[in-house]
Amino acid sequence: MKLLAAAALLAALVPAAPFGQSAPSASTGPSARPGHESRGDDCARPPASAEARHRTDGHPRDRMDLSPAEAAAVEARLNRILDGLGQGGHGPGKGRHGASESASLRRAAQISIPVYFHVIHAGAKGNVSSAMIQRQISTMNTSYGGGNGGANARVSFTLKAVSRTDNAAWFGDPERYEGTYKPRLHKGDKSSLNLYSTYIGGDLLGWSTFPWKYKSEPQMDGVTIHYASMPGGSIENFNKGFSATHEVGHWLGLYHTFQDGCSGEGDRVADTPAERDPTNGCPSSKDTCPTPGEDPVHNYMDYSYDTCMTSFTPGQGTRIHNVWTAYRA
Ligand SMILES: [Zn+2]
C-alpha cells in the first residue's frame, strides 16, 4: 500500500483520539489515514499524547489504539463497574496466567447478538450480495465459536435485518460522513451490533466504537468495514472476513494484542503474550518482548493477514463477557 509523505507527517502530529475512539473523530481527520498507528506502546518510550506513529508495512487495519494512560483509565472504570455489580476478581493481570480462565468461560452464558447490517454502496459498487452478508455473519460465528482454532468465546451473531443505501458521497468517504449515516441507519440498543459495509480508502480495513462509548454516543455505536474485506472480497490477504471479526472484537471491548507493547498490563488479557509491534503478514514466529511467550501472531486482535488468523484465547473470551456485563448487558 502506498503511503503519502505529507499525510504521514500530519499523522505524526495529530494526538490520539480520546479513549481510542473511532478513527474518524475530530482529532484524527481522514488526512491522517495512511498506515500510521498511534501505538503509545514502545518499550523504550514514555507515554505521550502525541506519541510518534509508526509505519506498518502491512495493513494497519484500523486505528483502535489507546495510549497507556487512556487504557488505564478505561480499566479503572470497568473494574469499578464490575465491583459494583459484585463481579470483582475480574481476571489476573498480564503474565499472571489464570488456569481458571477456560473454566470460567465455559460457565459463562452464551451472548447472542442481533446484527443490523447496513450496506452503503454507490450503484453497483459495494452493493454486496445477501449471500456475502450471510458468509460474513457465518465467519464471525465461526471465529467467536472457536471454529478456526482457539477458544470458544461463547458469542454468536444472528442477522436481524439488512438495509441498503445508495449514496456515492457516503460510500466515497465514510469517515467524513460517519456522523451522518450512523444516526440515520442505526437500529436496536446497546446489545445490538450495527455493522456497516462500505468503501474505505487508504490502508484501513475498518474501525469500531468501544462499548464504554455507548452511553455518551449511542447512535454512533457500531462497526464499519471495507466491503472488499468480506469473505470472497477483493483485498488480497485480507478477504476472509476477519476484519469484521477483529473490529467486532473492539466493539466487545478487546484491545489489540500489542496494546501497551511490552510494558504494563498490555491488552489486559493474561493468556496473550505481550507484543511490542503489530504483526505484518504471517511470520512463522515473532518474539518482540522479553516476557515469556512468542507474539500471538495468529490472534484475531493482531494485524496479521486474514490467512494467518485463527484464534481468540480463553482470557479474551472472559474479558468479552466481563465487558458485556458492564456495558452491553
Ligand atoms: Zn484493531
Describe the structure concisely for a colleague.
The chain is α/β, with parallel strands linked by helices. Helices cover 26% and strands 13% of the residues.
3D structure, described in words:
The chain has one domain (61-69, 106-329): Collagenase (Catalytic Domain). It is 26% helix and 13% strand. It has 8 helices and 7 strands, in the order H-E-E-H-H-E-H-E-H-H-E-E-E-H-H. It has helices at 5-13, 68-84, 101-107, 130-144, 168-172, 178-185, 242-251, 314-328; strands spanning 36-38, 53-55, 111-121, 155-166, 193-198, 206-208, 223-226. The strands form 2 sheets. It has a 5-stranded mixed beta sheet. It has a two-stranded antiparallel ribbon with strand order 1-2. Strand 3 (111-121), helix 4 (130-144) and strand 4 form a beta-alpha-beta unit. The protein is globular, with a radius of gyration of 18 Å. The model is unreliable at 1-57 (pLDDT under 50). The site of zinc ion (ZN) has 6 residues, from helix 7. Zinc ion binds next to helix 7. Keywords: Disulfide bond, Hydrolase, Metal-binding, Metalloprotease, Protease, Signal, Zinc.
